[in-house]
Amino acid sequence: MKRRLAISSAAIALLALIAGCSFFGGDEPNYTNWEPELSPDGRTLVYETPEGEEDLELYTRDVTTGETRQLTFNETADWSPTWSPDGDRIAYASVTGEGDDQNVDVYVIDLATLEIERLTTHGKVDVNPHWAVDGRIYFNSDRSGAWEIYSIDPETKTLTIITDSGG
Length: 167
Description:
- The protein is globular.
- The two termini are about 15 Å apart.
- By secondary structure, it is mainly beta.
- The protein has one helix at about 1-20; strands at about 35-40, 45-50, 55-60, 70, 80-85, 90-95, 105-110, 115-120, 125-130, 135-140, 150, 160.
- Helix content is about 10%, strand content about 40%.
- The chain has a single domain, classed as TolB, C-terminal domain (Neuraminidase, 6 Propeller).
């Protein structure tokens, strides 16, 4: 029930942003291009853009030419993109499953092939990925019963809990 509530709350907040309404009254600007992150070489931005009512897709944009490229093509929300240190891949969070079986996991997309790999498969929520200079992807998860920081090696899939609040 808590997992459903957390996913539902996140979905409601996301939809509120996309729809342009505010929880605090008044109107907010439309949610269009969000969470930009500059590539390691400084030439390309990755960001998310809404495509439909409940869908966010990832795009890149060349900062010099303005050329855009859509990276993800699905009917779920893909968000929080983060570049690999070499600039060849992007990790991000995405919703998987449907109905009561919805979950959020961390994925990686290869920019040369657009092949997508699911890195985390735990039944709890894995969000806020950040690809660090040490090659590991750090993220938050509630898999221990409390929100903690974890890291995963995208090559070996070795998972490490970084914080442990004893939750």
